[in-house]
Amino acid sequence: MKEIRIPRFRSEQFFSLFLILFWGQDTVFNYIRAIILRIPYVNIGADYYFPIAILVCFVLSLPYVVKAVSPKDLLFLLISAIFYFLQTLLFPENREYLMSIAVNFFTVVLPLYIVGLRMDSEKHFKILYISSLVNICAFSLYTLFSSDSNDSQQVLYSGFMSRAYILLPQLLVAIGYAFKKPNWINITIGIAGGVLLAMCGNRGSILLLVVFIMFCLFFFVGKKLRKSVYAVVSFVGVSIVLFYQWIVKALGALILVWGMSPRFLNYITSGGFFESEGRDSITQTLLDKISEKPIIGYGLAANHVITESYAHNFVLELWTDFGIIAGSALIGVVSCIIIKAWMKNKKDVLLCTLLCVGFFKLFISSSFLFEGMFFALLGYCVTLNRKGKLLTDRKG
Question: In this predicted structure, which of 145-159, 279-293, 350-364, 370-384 has the lowest mean pLDDT?
Fold first, then answer.
């Protein structure tokens, strides 16, 4: 009688499973949750199934994860926690807001630094790519056919902004993989995803997509394909110029039929793509505040307390919170970590993806206190820098 062997999962495989769950938490797994909510009795725990699954996978992957964590990393996390709570004492005016976001910051945002430390482009990028294809398809079906896509208020004013930033990292991974290994599936999903992203009406996500594509053109295309890719890009550019009016009408018709946001199209046709009165007002308010207290600043998260919004600019955020001197020092440290990793890994698609959604995004929207991808980027860059140092030491 043959024995039935049940395959045993190693901690490394649990980390891969964790990445799949993490990468699809706002798309396919969120839609599965919506389905579970419609099932009697089972729907009672709908809000807990996914968080428990992702937590279990992460815990079971710890033997693999801790191999990438050094005492310096633990010290960084400890100092970050102490500094966070120290800010609530030194700047009581920010205390209420800091405490309101503390749980999310320490359970969702900051821990992604450890995840970034363990991520490996060679081992994990294909997993993220396959997950991204599934997530993009699920996102497309949900966005185009869900009832809330036809909510006129959301379409006109919020413009699916949050959805655009949910789609963006998935799309960057798919496009990055298409540049590395082009085939009709990658190219089709990349183009369709780009059109869908534009129809979400978010300018920032479109700008980040363009930046990422420029990186791909300069660093990912081999010499043999470079002329062909440049020819295709030139052809697309010329076609847009020649058939601009027809393309605008076609997009307008699609937006109308699918109930998407016309904001992006309106910005293009009106010539106001780079104009933003709201953000200009926030910038001026923060600059005025910085001029009043340029040395010590107003404390962590002060930019939000002052404006009741985000600074929409990483430099302004740090200057407002910590003053020009300390803020500039922090910007310098972060920039050095990223640049050092980038200089030796320019063809790393995962690094470029994290750079766009975790760093460049902070100059357009959100805050580093909410962007787990920012800490994932830092962790990944630290790992890349350590690998470079290890190679240097061995050669020495």
Answer: 145-159
Q: Tell if the pTM clears 0.90, that is, is over it.
A: no
Q: How far is CA 81 from the centre of its chain?
A: 23
- State the amino acid at position 168 in one-letter form: L
Q: Which residues contact 265 (CB under 8 A, 6 or more apart)?
A: 198, 201, 248, 251, 252, 255
What are the pLDDT digits (tens) for 260-272?
A: 555 555 555 554 4
Structural tokens at position 368: 């580093």
How far apart CA 175 and CA 165 sit, in angstroms, is 15
DSSP H or E segment with residue 385: helix 372-395
Tokens at 264, concatenated: 């992006």
Task: Please give the pLDDT value at position 146.
Answer: 65
d(CA 209, CA 57): 31
Q: Could you say which DSSP state residue 4 is in?
A: P
CA distances (Å), 72 to each of 213, 240, 330, 373, in order?
Answer: 35, 51, 17, 20
Distance, in Å, from the CA atom of 359 to the CA atom of 377, rounded to the nearest integer, reads 8
Contact 155, 186 (CB under 8 A): no
Contact (CB, 8 A) for 133 and 359? no
End-to-end CA distance of the chain: 57
Rounded distance between C-alpha atoms, residue 56 and residue 360, angstroms: 32
Q: ∠ at Cα 197 (195, 198), nearest 5°? A: 65
